[in-house]
Specification:
Radius of gyration: 19 Å
Distance between the termini: 20 Å
Strand content: under 5%
Structural class: mainly alpha
Helix content: 55-70%
CATH architecture: Up-down Bundle
Largest sheet: 2 strands, antiparallel
CATH class: Mainly Alpha
Number of domains: 1
Oligomer: single chain
């Protein structure tokens, strides 16, 4: 009886932040990729980068909030659907995603500020420049930003593949832990 009362889905706040950040990460990557295809300062590139930076810094704030919320409310147990090795792999992948979601906007911020560019949040205010202009640092940060973007893309693809596998192949309750309508206890995809 007590096991039935154990929540099997994430807290509503964590589920909301998850889906908001999923959309945000995909949009930021798309904007960054589109801007990278255009020559510097030409056409829509400055506008794309303006929105890319604003959304990237939004993602940084949200990941901090998400980590705080996750520490405060925890995560639902996996139950019997995953063995210890798969649970460890899932936790590792989640930790890597959290780290990358923080590191990617930080490297973008360093790229901009070290390159002598302001990082504005939708034109409402500028984030303080805590990095002095330094072209070599800007270049290294830009390289790191690109590598991290590819790493996020790879981990998101892995995350989506795992979600699809749990939903369509295993038909267990792992996908339901984060699905918006899954605020229930027990049970899988039924």
């Amino acid at each position: 009886m007590a096991a039935e009362a154990t929540p099997r889905s994430y807290d509503l706040t964590l589920r909301t932040l998850h889906w908001l950040m999923a959309a945000l990460v995909l949009l930021v990557i798309a904007l960054g990729a589109a801007a990278a295809l255009l020559p510097a300062g030409v056409g829509a590139r400055p506008a794309l980068l303006f929105v890319h930076k604003s959304l990237g810094m939004t993602a940084l704030v949200l990941v901090v909030l998400r980590v705080g919320c996750r520490l405060a409310v925890g995560a639902p147990p996996y139950g019997d659907t995953l063995g210890a090795l798969m649970q460890a792999a899932a936790r590792g992948e989640q930790a890597a995603l959290y780290a990358l979601m923080a590191a990617l906007p930080v490297t973008g911020y360093v790229t901009s500020t070290a390159g002598g560019h302001e990082v504005s949040w939708f034109g409402l205010f500028a984030w303080p420049a805590v990095v002095a202009p330094d072209k070599a640092l800007a270049s290294r940060a830009a390289e790191a930003h690109l590598v991290l973007a590819w790493a996020v893309g790879a981990l998101v693809a892995l995350h989506l593949a795992a979600a699809a596998w749990h939903y369509w192949v295993k038909r267990d309750d792992i996908f339901a832990r984060m699905w918006p309508s899954a605020a229930r206890t027990g049970g899988g995809r039924g």
